[in-house]
Amino acid sequence: MKQLLLAVDRLSTWIGQAFAWMIVALTLLISWEVFSRYLLNDPHDWNLDAQLMGYGTLFMMAGAYTLAKSGHVRGDVLYGFFQPRTQAAIDLALYLLFFLPGIVALTWAGWTFFQDALAIRESTFSATPLPVYPFKAVIPMAGGLLLLQGLVEIVRCVQCLQAGEWPSREQDVEEVDVDKLKQMVHADGAAR
């Protein structure tokens, strides 16, 4: 079971890291538009639509990655003081009451939304229209990945309730902690 959970973590991590490269593409796209608009006096009407769809795709495809890294926002003020079993019980209740119904609804509605857009070959309302249906295909895809990762997190909650400690998860990146950074560089924090 542990290998399956870590495999889903690796899948979410790989997809999140792959889509993170869209930041580079979007930066280049925006830089090119600024150059073209202000220096060449040749703006492109489709560029803003492409940027919005790119950022939307990036945001949606980062959901499963963020859940795999336990990076979604929660009320950590009290949560961090609880024992692992209490944390797992709270998480499990919230996954069952809110997460599962919400993500299932998102995925179902997203699939319908995509099918409708594909049926009419929906495009943007600009002089140079861009197809919208590929972007809308990302909605059910992101929902499915988030649902898969959410099921893994539910299993982790159940395992924590049984064992009294959180099972391991795939490691990737860690937030910068000033104290850890000071220890790493052996700085004492005193001004010199």
Q: Which SSEs are present, and which pair or pack?
A:
Elements: H1 2-20, H2 22-38, H3 47-61, H4 63-68, H5 76-79, H6 84-119, H7 133-163, H8 178-185
Helix pairs in contact: 1-7, 2-3, 3-7, 6-7
Number of strands: 0
Q: Main beta sheet: strand number and arrangement? A: none
Rg from Cα: 21 Å
Supply the helix-strand structural class.
Answer: mainly alpha
Question: What's the helix-strand series?
Answer: HHHHHHHH
Query: Strand portion, in percent?
Result: under 5%
Q: On the 0-100 scale, what is the average pLDDT? A: 88
Alpha-carbon distance between the two ends:
53 Å
Percent of residues in helices: over 70%
Q: How many DSSP helices?
A: 8
Shape designation: globular
The low-pLDDT segments are none
Describe this structure in words.
This protein has 192 residues and is mainly alpha-helical. It is 71% helix and 0% strand. The radius of gyration is 21 Å and the shape is globular. The complex comprises the extracytoplasmic solute receptor protein and the two transmembrane proteins. Pfam families: DctQ (PF04290).
